[in-house]
TrEMBL record:
Cellular-component GO terms for this entry: cytoplasm
UniProt keyword list: FAD, Flavoprotein, Oxidoreductase
Gene3D superfamilies cross-referenced by the UniProt entry: 3.30.390.30, FAD/NAD(P)-binding domain (3.50.50.60)
Requisite cofactors: FAD
Domain Reductase C-terminal intervals: 314-397
GO terms assigned for molecular function: oxidoreductase activity, acting on NAD(P)H
Gene: thcD
The enzyme's E.C. designation: 1.18.1.-
Domain FAD/NAD(P)-binding: 3-291
Domain of life: Bacteria
Protein name: Rhodocoxin reductase
C-alpha cells in the first residue's frame, strides 16, 4: 500500500495517522480535514474551554514526525472507489488517488426548526462563541437535557447565567439511561439553580427565544441546541458505500459496497456504525473512547492484519460537580442493582444478566467502573449480594 488518505481531522483521524505509522506504514499519508485548525480534542470544549479555564484543546500529535500532509480547511466531496481496490477521493483541493482510505468524518449537531439563532457545541469556534454569551444574568435556554445540555448548563450556571433547560422527555438523559435513572440527576439541576422543564415540545427557535408547541414563549438571550448529532456521511452519497445513518463497518472496521467488505476502506469514530461481536448488533457509539481506540484496529485492518474492534462501549460526563461514567450496554439486561443510596452523593447501578455484568453506571464512584470493566472484560460471574453492597469491591462471586 503506497498512499493512504484519512478523511476527517478529529480524534479518530489523528489516531489513525499515529496508528498507521506505529504499525510501520511507510507510504504517503494525507489527512484531509474540513476545519482550518489543527486537530483538537472535543470533550474539553464543554468543560474547561466553556468554563474559561482553557482556550484550546489541540491534540499533541507530532505531524512532522508522522510525515503526514495536512490538507486543512479542505473537504472531501465525493468518493469513487475503483473496482477491487483503491480509488479516488474528490475534495475541494482536487481529486486525490488512494490505495487505502480511512473515513473519520465524525458527526454534526442536529438543529431545531426556526429562523432564530441557535448555538451548538461541536467545534472550537462554537465553544468560544457560546462562551461569549455566558455572562452573569444572561438568559440561556438550552434545548435537550442530554450529556451536552447538562454540561453546558453546568458551565452557564457557574458563570451566573439564568439557565433553563427544556427537555422533550420526562427526565434528563432519558435516551441514554431511561426515565427513572435520568430522574436521579434532576435534583442536580435544582441545586445548581438551573430550571429544568421536562415534556417540552419546541415548535421553533425565534429571534427572542423559543416558541413552544401550544404557543408559549421562552425568552432567551441565547438558545443552545443540544438534541443530538448525526454522522457526517452526506459526502459519500453516490459512492456505493453501504451507509445507514453511519458508514456500515464490519468487526474489523472495513466499509462495504453492496454488503461486500472493502479491505482498503475503513471507517472509525462518530461516523462509523460497526458490527460488535460482543453485543451481536451494530454500535454507533459517538464516544471519545471509540474515537481513541478503534483507529488502532482500523490501521491494522488496512495494513492486512487480522484485527477486530470489540471494546466495551464507554462514556463519561462531568456535570454539576459529578463525574458520571457509563460502561457497557444495558438494554437487554435482566435486572438492575443499586450500589449505594441514589439520593446520596455517590452511587452506582449495575445491570446483570444471570450473574454477568452487562453495564455499570457510576456516579462519583470511579472504582466501581474500573472493577466492573475487569469483570466484564473477563466475563467473570458476580455475586448480586456483593454487587448491591457499596462497601465491598465489585468482584467475582
Ligand atoms: P470529530 O471529532 O467530529 O471529527 C471529525 C472531523 O472531520 C471534524 O473536524 C470535521 O470537520 C471533519 N469532516 C467532516 N466532514 C468532512 C469532510 N467531508 N471532509 C473533510 N473533513 C470532514 N465523549 C465522551 O466520551 N465523553 C465526554 O465527556 C465527551 N464530551 C464531548 C463534548 C463535546 C462538546 C463534544 C462535541 C463531544 C464530546 N464527546 C465526549 C464525544 C467525543 O468528543 C466524540 O465522540 C469524538 O470527538 C469523535 O471523534 P471523531 O474524530 O470521530 O469525530
Amino acid at each position: 500500500m503506497d498512499r493512504v488518505i484519512i478523511v476527517g481531522g478529529g480524534l479518530a483521524g489523528t489516531r489513525a495517522a499515529e496508528a498507521l505509522r506505529a504499525r510501520g506504514f511507510a507510504g504517503a499519508l494525507t489527512l484531509v480535514g474540513a476545519e482550518a485548525r489543527r486537530p483538537y480534542d472535543r470533550p474539553p470544549l464543554s468543560k474547561a474551554v466553556l468554563a474559561g479555564d482553557a482556550d484550546t484543546s489541540e491534540l499533541t500529535a507530532d505531524w512532522d514526525a508522522l510525515r503526514c500532509d495536512l490538507l486543512l480547511g479542505e473537504r472531501a466531496t465525493g468518493l469513487r472507489p475503483a473496482p477491487g481496490r483503491g480509488g479516488t477521493l474528490a475534495t475541494t483541493a482536487g481529486d486525490l488517488p488512494f490505495d487505502g482510505l480511512v473515513i473519520a468524518t465524525g458527526a454534526v449537531p442536529v438543529l431545531l426548526p426556526g429562523p432564530g439563532r441557535q448555538h451548538v457545541l461541536r467545534t472550537h469556534e462554537d465553544a468560544h462563541e457560546l462562551r461569549g454569551h455566558l455572562r452573569p444574568g444572561a438568559r440561556i435556554v438550552i434545548v435537550g437535557a442530554g450529556w451536552i445540555g447538562a454540561e453546558v448548563a453546568t458551565a452557564a450556571a457557574k458563570k451566573g447565567c439564568r439557565v433553563t433547560v427544556a427537555e422533550a422527555g420526562e427526565a434528563p438523559l432519558v435516551q441514554a439511561l431511561g426515565a427513572d435513572l435520568g430522574a436521579r440527576t434532576a435534583p442536580w439541576y435544582a441545586a445548581a439553580g438551573v430550571e429544568l422543564r421536562t415534556g417540552v415540545r419546541v415548535a421553533s427557535v425565534e429571534d427572542d427565544g423559543l416558541l413552544l408547541a401550544g404557543g408559549e414563549r421562552l425568552a432567551a438571550d441565547a438558545v443552545v441546541t443540544g438534541i443530538g448529532v448525526r454522522p457526517e456521511v452526506g459526502w459519500l452519497d453516490g459512492s456505493g458505500l453501504d451507509v445507514e445513518l453511519g458508514v456500515l463497518a464490519d468487526p474489523s472496521l472495513r466499509a462495504s459496497i453492496g454488503g461486500v467488505p472493502r479491505p482498503d476502506i475503513v471507517a472509525v469514530g462518530d461516523c462509523a456504525a460497526w458490527w460488535s461481536n460482543r453485543h451481536g448488533r451494530r454500535v454507533l457509539a459517538e464516544h471519545w473512547d471509540a474515537a481513541l481506540n478503534a483507529p488502532e484496529v482500523a490501521a491494522a485492518t488496512l495494513l492486512g492484519a487480522d484485527a477486530v474492534y470489540d471494546a466495551i462501549p464507554y462514556f463519561w460526563s462531568e456535570q454539576f460537580g459529578h463525574m458520571v461514567q457509563y460502561l457497557g450496554r444495558h438494554e437487554d439486561a435482566e435486572r438492575r442493582i443499586d450500589r449505594g443510596d441514589p439520593a446520596g452523593p455517590s452511587w452506582s447501578t449495575v445491570w446483570l444478566t444471570g450473574d454477568r455484568v452487562d453495564a455499570v453506571l457510576a456516579v462519583d464512584r470511579p472504582r466501581d467502573l474500573v472493577q466492573a470493566r475487569r469483570l466484564m472484560a473477563a466475563g467473570t460471574p458476580v455475586d448480586p449480594v456483593i454487587a448491591a453492597d457499596p462497601d465491598i469491591p465489585l468482584r467475582q462471586a
